[in-house]
Amino acid sequence: MVASRVLSALLGIGAYFDDRAPTWARIGVTVAMVLTALAVWLLMPALRNRRVSQAAG
């Protein structure tokens, strides 16, 4: 799931380089990227703990 969200955020970067992209699209992409970065940051400790517990068990 994390990889799909990161890929989705990266695919939105094109809105910044297209002069025809409306302002609302750029704002939406920015909000989605910030939320994705926040979600990944919040999930990383849980993913690391799961890997450590699987390796130990």
How do the strands and helices of this protein lay out in sequence?
Elements: H1 2-11, H2 14-17, H3 23-56
Walk me through what this model shows.
By secondary structure, the chain is mainly α. The protein has one domain. The chain has three helices and no strands. Helix 1 packs antiparallel against helix 3. The radius of gyration is 16 Å and the shape is elongated.
Can I get a quick summary?
By secondary structure, this protein is mostly helical. Helix content is 84%, strand content 0%. The protein has one domain (2-56).
For the secondary structure, the number of strands is 0
Structural class category? mainly alpha
Poorly predicted regions: none
Total number of domains: 1
Termini Cα gap: 24 Å
- What share of the residues lie within helices? over 70%
Q: Name the helix and strand elements from N-terminus to C-terminus, one letter apiece.
A: HHH
What about the largest sheet? none
